[in-house]
């Protein structure tokens, strides 16, 4: 008897399910409960309690008034699990997690940068402060005060820290330097004095005065004999270098020996000291860095030496075409446009392979507690580099997508490029961009909340949002080559070439520090005003 009754109930429920599904199918896959009551013969009690029926979801907003089938929500939902069909009252919001509480917990756990109440309100289309606060009170999510708002995150400390670090770079950073003021000129004798004030405590291999003369040579492009004559003729230079009379100036051979004996790492100590002072006085110093490389040609006497690869440390490589020489890699602070770390490799060295030594050099010399992200071009795009950056600097590496890695990534890169071309001014966070990307395509490439591929695309979008910061590194390379002779190498020994390379960075930063100490902030990035 009971079995017959149960079967009858099952048949009735099945009949109601089929009727509701058919109605939804013919009405855009979503309908209000009132429409279902008026348009079908399904009993009111079934429709009132339809949220308890496994095949159907009710909307998270509009007091759960709208109904959709579980299958449709699953197939039409975006990367973050939402489906938002238009209805008479605006937009109905459905989520794969079905109810508000599990949806909010899912978002707090899975969103790379956590969740705030205002973000939850926008996502769910309803007020979410109370349910979020209740989840936090029950210790199902963690609430953290962050910049005058509460961020709800994963309850595990490691995941929570990662989410808060991601949130640091969710908004496009504006660290654009002010337009340079007309602060007159900088004087070379002032620059020499600035460098000497630092070099006295950092140099051991040669005297600070001779090192200062070598820094001066980077701006002049002189031979060592010409440098000797310049110092002999210029009283202000001699005074800055503490050479009383012209005959006190070292001869060209002595200056060459000083250059040969000067250790590049001691120059890096000077660079670190000067950059540290400049960064400490800048509001956004140390928040973003840019990593990039350029090439410089080797100095050879004959074509045969180049063709036979006879210059120590040089080799054939590719960078904007083929070249014979070396590659120079920089870490540049985005806000101050200072070359804070510099390494040199042979010309055939792959950009990605040079990444770890450069990052280690930077990490050993600077406090990176305020660092929010490192940016780089597609040449540094690899999971190993991202993991190494996170481990060493405790910040994400945001690289442009390297389309040669796979055809899906090439397609995604084109989609992101087109997206920012059309909607760049409307995108204030990575989520805005993800919502505008073709959701079917993201699903096809296995993109879902929390998996590795989503993280990769998420970081690629953030790189696009911060790409304007990368322009600074090109300006730094331009200044190094135009004003400090980076690409005018006149040395053949590998160690001497490296000395020349680091001297260029030291000379540029010495000019910036001189401008700051002389209270001429408009000249910090203007070595052209050095006389």
Report a brief summary of the structure.
The protein is an alpha+beta fold and 531 residues long. The chain is built from 23 helices and 16 strands. The strands form 5 sheets. Strands 11, 12, 13, 14, 15 and 16 form a 6-stranded mixed β-sheet that branches. Strands 1-3-2 form a 3-stranded antiparallel β-sheet. Strands 8-10-9 form a 3-stranded antiparallel β-sheet.
Report on the structure:
The chain has helices at 2-25, 33-39, 44-48, 70-76, 100-110, 117-124, 129-137, 157-168, 188-202, 208-220, 224-233, 235-240, 252-261, 264-280, 303-307, 355-365, 383-393, 407-423, 430-436, 439-444, 452-465, 471-483, 494-517, and strands at 31-32, 56-58, 66-69, 82-83, 86-87, 90-91, 94-95, 115-116, 142-146, 149-153, 288-297, 315-318, 322-333, 338-346, 373-376, 397-399. The chain is 49% helix and 13% strand. Helix 14 (264-280) runs parallel beside helix 23 (494-517). With 531 residues, the chain is α+β, with helices and mostly antiparallel strands. The strands form five sheets. Strands 11, 12, 13, 14, 15 and 16 form a six-stranded mixed sheet that branches. It has a three-stranded antiparallel sheet with strand order 1-3-2. A three-stranded antiparallel sheet has the order 8-10-9. Residues 158-170 have a biased composition (Basic and acidic residues). GO terms for molecular function: DNA binding; transposase activity. This is Transposase.
